[in-house]
């Protein structure tokens, strides 16, 4: 397996993420024991969804040569009781609830806006979040004296 992203522990709850030639720190807020040195994992998840949404809409608008000047996606995440979710199959425990507010700036007609609204849910990250996902783990153990590269 050739890794696409590598995550390494730095200190406390800080981790360095290496994605290609990019490196950045992920951490938890001080209120939960982190140092607040970077976004937390849910911030990254929301950022991935927001960026993918905007990119997908922008690429579609460009292909259609529609006058989109800007797209802003605002997101929030919380856990809700499954019984309070009208569209969820799960009825026990809690489910993740992401709210996404999309603002499009440009001279678009109602038909174009309706189509871009449909396109927003077609971004690959949105599709991943809405379908069953399998995480296949492999665990390795090294003695304390070993160096992890």
Task: Measure the end-to-end span.
Answer: 16 Å
Give Rg in angstroms: 19 Å
Biggest sheet, spatial arrangement of strands: 1-2-3
Number of helices: 3
* Shape annotation: globular
Strand content: 25-35%
**Uncertain spans:** none
The major sheet is characterized as: 3 strands, antiparallel
CATH-defined superfamily of the largest domain: K homology (KH) domain
Question: What is the overall pLDDT average?
Answer: 93
Structural class: alpha+beta
The CATH level-2 architecture of the largest domain is identified as: 2-Layer Sandwich
Overall tally of structural domains: 2
- What is the third-level CATH name, the topology of the largest domain? GMP Synthetase, Chain A, domain 3
Order of helices and strands: EEEHEEHH
Fraction of residues in H or I helices:
25-40%
What quaternary form is this?
single chain
Question: How many strand elements?
Answer: 5
Q: Regarding CATH, which class of the largest domain?
A: Alpha Beta
In terms of topology, how is this protein built?
Blueprint: E1 5-11, E2 14-19, E3 22-26, H1 41-64, E4 68-81, E5 94-106, H2 110-120, H3 124-130
Antiparallel strand pairs: 1-2, 2-3, 4-5
